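re: the backbone from monday

yeah here it is again, tokenized this time
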């Protein structure tokens, strides 16, 4: 999966060689904490570990561009609970 970085004048994309593929943010963070290599992920998951000195930012002047997140739900009408949850999630991300 290619990684993207913001650089002067646009976006750069690289496809780093990698042998570990995960589909879970906890496993992704655990791999980084175990020293298994460099990872690129969302700040909401990584920042607490960076703040505690357990992970270190690499290329801090070249962050990944903002990503869009979609929330899918089965009905057109949002219940109050779902609306409150989506607003809370949006405030986090």
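seq for it, each position gets an aa:
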């Amino acid at each position: 999966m290619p990684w993207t970085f913001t650089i002067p004048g646009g976006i750069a994309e690289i496809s780093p060689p990698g042998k570990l593929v995960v589909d879970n943010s906890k496993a992704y963070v655990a791999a980084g904490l175990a020293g298994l290599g460099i990872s690129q992920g969302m700040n909401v998951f990584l920042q607490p570990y960076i703040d505690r000195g357990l992970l270190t930012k690499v290329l801090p002047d070249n962050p990944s561009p903002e990503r869009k997140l979609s929330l899918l739900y089965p009905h057109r009408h949002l219940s109050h609970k779902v609306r409150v949850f989506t607003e809370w999630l949006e405030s986090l991300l």
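The first strand starts at residue 3 and ends at 7. The two ends are 22 Å apart (CA to CA).
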